[in-house]
Design goal:
Layout: E1 8-14, H1 18-31, E2 37-42, H2 48-56, E3 58-65, E4 68-75, E5 78-84, H3 90-105, E6 110-114, E7 118-120, H4 126-135, E8 139-147, H5 162-175, E9 192-194, E10 201-205, H6 206-211, H7 224-234, E11 238-249, H8 259-276, H9 281-303
Parallel strand pairs: 1-2, 1-6, 2-5, 8-11
Antiparallel strand pairs: 3-4, 4-5, 6-10, 7-11, 8-10, 9-11
Helix pairs in contact: 5-9, 8-9
Amino acid sequence: MNNNTKDLTTIITDYKTISQTINYIKELYKSADYLFDTIVVDNSLNFNSKIKFDKAFEYIKSTRISDWNCYQYKFENSWIILVYSNKNNGYAGGNNIGANIANKLFEPQYLLFSNSDIELNKGFSIKKNIQFLKNHPSIGILGPTIKDLNGKDQNPRKQMSAKSQLIYWYFDLMWFHMKFNQWNLDKNAHSKKAFWVSGSFMFVRNKAFIECNGFDEHNFLYGEEIILSSRMRQKKYSTYYLEQIPIIHAHQGGTNSTFKNRRQNHKSIKYYYRKYENTPRYILVISDLSFYLVELVSYLKHHI
């Protein structure tokens, strides 16, 4: 299948939101101004996903690539590949599987990593982003304008100290009700280099992705795009924010704000600062104390 003429592959890692993902794929192709193929990595271990894909797309054949069962479909003159992972590999692991299969099947020049809870506004141009990457070979990651359902920006992000990200943030959560929770948002930014951009919808140069060995799979969930940007910088590639017609990140799938997920987020961000920023151990210890103190106070406020 490597005679494919498309230079872009979209990769979606799904966890128990396969109907949402199918609807998103259809809308994406309907509104897109650029040709691309799509790979969906199903992390849910739910084999009913294929039944839903069979109803939504034209089934062609099944094949086994490396360790994964893949089901090939046609839609809008493009390939859609459903991949069953052997376990829940998280965001990083799932996307690495998708990129691996994309390279075996399509050999794309560019990758679009996307959540399925994304809404594209009229006039948003995939072509504009790909052309920007073609014109700027030193850019490894390109992030567009992304807003949440309340109109708040999610891109671009700036560098924050470990103390701000790992300690002060938790006290903001407890006493200021997240008033400062967008400390790392570069609010005055127009198109410019960024420290990192949201992984909910980002374009990546495949050559650079391969050179930096993809996502760091130590993190099961959260912080993957920060680490990927750091890996890109180590290979002399930049992360760039391109201001444009915004897309909407609806936050409808994937995770909920439970203690388990908040703890996972804390561990992931702490791992980034420890491994990639060489943060002193005493700050990491204080960050743990801050996190669990805020969680304890929050629990007592709601249960006493």
